């Protein structure tokens, strides 16, 4: 499942990058787009792999640690 | 930055829909559980606090005319510190978008299509929101204008046909709440929806004229409508039922009997109300997109809209485990976390701007 997801996502990201490069986008646009896609890939990988993490729990931990 | 302008009226409608978008679905049950039959009063004081905070954002904007909150951060505090603030804001806007998406997915899964995977709803709505973001703020404003009438009409019809269930005794005994305890217990309402409206500071530069003339009336109108919705929910369902439901307004629509041959209109009504959630999602998504564009100096929004759909749809799944955990998180952390972005950072930026204007010659910005 993870391998199938990774292959599909990487192919989709590569296709997207080829598309924006072919449209002569500025390098900065391409870099930010690739960075966001990579972040999305990691988030979805964590979901598919069943890693137990939660954004709200992290925020709660920071608030508790800072004593707010 | 996009060369677009929206009228005062359009910004008023955007403010109204952004404030009420998910609030009218989620908040009434929680507020009624906390403040019982007096819950309809709660939005008034929280709304007053929200208005005061929005006034502060407008003052900040007055010192930096034509700049979004991201640009204000970088122009005030410099590229390093200001950039860090701006990055936090961009993350916050993305998080709000993920929250709205999750609320929408939860609603669809709980009420209409329980067998469908939640990510299907997320992706479907986000792709449309991304398309709206690519088209620009004028398109979003026009969609808001055209759909608001339909939304208002649906609300009025639901309330009118449900009035047969109305009982005044459901408000008795009135005004029995412990004021300070209720203020403390309902403080999360100040975070969501009032503090998350800092997202609208991304749209200030697009408003023709003074954005305050539509932002403040928009917040006031949304507060009044929220109070009215809670009032009707108590009168029709009663405190006990309403406080045990996740979506009390949907139950009102479900039990609505317009005539002996018109039944189960809840699906049609839910679809109309979904458009309200979609309006909020499209505004939040647009704000996230332009926040990233402003922060990294990007020329084309569409280049990041699609990757952002990928990211937000994933975050929407991982942002909370379930509704119960979310309710606990909301009670404990929403006020603190949202106030950081709605109050603390704007105050820091205001003070920073004031100090720079006063003590560093040649730094007086937007003095006109």
Structure, explained:
The complex is a heterodimer of chains A (68) and B (368). Chain A contains three helices and no strands. By secondary structure, chain A is mostly helical. Chain B is mostly helical and 368 residues long. Helix content of chain B is 74%, strand content 0%. Chain B contains 14 helices and no strands. Chain B has helices spanning 8-20, 23-35, 42-63, 69-112, 118-135, 137-162, 179-185, 188-194, 212-237, 239-243, 248-254, 266-296, 302-318, 323-359. In chain B, helix 1 crosses helix 12 (266-296). The chains are: A mainly alpha (68), B mainly alpha (368). The interface between A and B is medium-sized, with 27 and 30 residues.
Task: Give structural attributes.
heterodimer, A: 68 residues, mainly alpha, 3 helices, 0% strand, B: 368 residues, Amino acid/polyamine transporter I, 74% helix, globular
Low-confidence stretches of chain B: none
The separation of the N and C termini of chain A measures 41 Å
- Provide the succession of SSEs of chain A: HHH
CATH topology category name of chain B = Amino acid/polyamine transporter I
Shape of chain B: globular
Number of helical segments of chain B?
A: 14
What fraction of the residues of chain B are assigned to beta strands by DSSP?
A: under 5%
Secondary structure class of chain B reads: mainly alpha
Number of strands of chain B: 0
Largest sheet of chain B: none
Largest interface: A-B, 27 and 30 residues
Averaged pLDDT of chain A? 86
